[in-house]
Amino acid sequence: MKEIFQRKLFDYLLSKNIENFIGVPDSTMKYFIDQGLKNNKIIVTTREEEAIGIGVGMILSGSPSTIFMQNAGFANSISTISSLVQLYEIPMIFLIGWRGYKSTDAPEHIQIGKIQPNLLSSLDLKSRVIHEKNWKSGCDWAIHRMKNKKPAVLVIRRMKDE
Amino acid sequence: MNRINAMQEIVKYTKNSIIISANGFISRDLHFLNEKNSNFYMIGSMGLASSIGLGVALKNPKKRIFVFDGDGNILMNLGSLTTIGSQKPKNLIHVIFDNSIHESTGGQPTNSKNIKIQNLAKACNYKVFFAKTENKIKTIFQSLKHTAGPVMIVVQITKSDNISPRVEPTPIEIRNRFMMSLKR
């Protein structure tokens, strides 16, 4: 996703009263995170599960939160998602950068990237892949789910080889 | 002093405060000793009580937020100490019940026998207290009113004699009543 759309994505979620953005950085969404840092709304954690924990605490306090991470970190978090987010039914928006979407991505991303859609469906987590043309409707969908007390996942694919 | 003895002394001072308790015997003991709506019993997601506590503390700066944690639990999420030490929530009181074993899974050793959690916390901007008697717990809690957090209290305990029953309310009940307590 191009820089301008990543920045717009952040601004839009913020304008929809998402108050906290917590996570582990991923280069797929570096401009999104940069926009958040400029707005002083980002907490960078040491691991993805930690970010989910902090987000749960904030959501329990009535403060809507988005958790951002790379798909590798999402895979790290499966147990936390099932035994905390899903068990207690915490309405949380996940923003996941999808490395290994293309088979030409760096080798460490290929296998985990290949199973990313299966990981989401095994957990029964509802997701939308967002890009430059549909990001706004993707956000609206996620916010709607959150208001109905359900988690939602937005996925940004890594399209470029760097 | 085992965990029940220590917790019995501590809940005299936490009264109606918000408490996030770690999974396993810690949540069971809290439920057995001091069941109330403002307890968040974290029954899964081992390691994350301190992170949930940080999120609650940052959003409720006027309330004192307690985390009841274990040595095995915090060792699993040591990174959270650096995040807490960076965010510096003044209202967070992080209690570690340290028996140097994974008691809930059969008493296997943890590394807290070799590495002092107090030292890790000090390096992460916590104000650190240590207790191994009920009297010391009392002294610490009496002085806490004047101490800005993040505070860590490491309570050295022995293995328990009894196992408390499982937490009764369902996760959804725990969530709903906890959220209501935070609104007050």
The largest β sheet of chain A comes out as: 6 strands, parallel
How many individual β-strands of chain A?
A: 6
Q: Could you give the order of the helices and strands of chain A?
A: HEHEHEHHEHEHE
Q: Which two chains touch over the largest interface?
A: A-B, 29 and 34 residues
Low-confidence stretches of chain B: none
Biggest sheet of chain A: strands side by side, in what order? 2-1-3-4-6-5
What is the mean pLDDT of chain B? 96
End-to-end span of chain B in angstroms? 34 Å
Per the CATH scheme, the topology name of chain A is Rossmann fold
By CATH reckoning, the class of chain A would read Alpha Beta
Number of helices of chain A: 7
Low-confidence runs of chain A (pLDDT<50, min 5 residues)? Answer: none
**Secondary structural class of chain B:** alpha/beta
Q: What's the average pLDDT of chain A?
A: 96
Question: What's the layout of helices and strands?
Answer:
The complex is a heterodimer of chains A (162) and B (184).
Chain A: H1 3-15, E1 20-23, H2 30-38, E2 42-44, H3 48-60, E3 65-70, H4 71-76, H5 78-86, E4 93-98, H6 107-122, E5 127-130, H7 135-147, E6 152-157
Parallel strand pairs in A: 1-2, 1-3, 3-4, 4-6, 5-6
Chain B: H1 3-14, E1 18-21, H2 25-34, E2 39-41, H3 49-59, E3 65-70, H4 71-76, H5 79-87, E4 92-98, E5 101-102, E6 108-109, H6 117-123, E7 127-131, H7 134-144, E8 151-156, H8 171-183
Parallel strand pairs in B: 1-2, 1-3, 3-4, 4-8, 7-8
Antiparallel strand pairs in B: 5-6
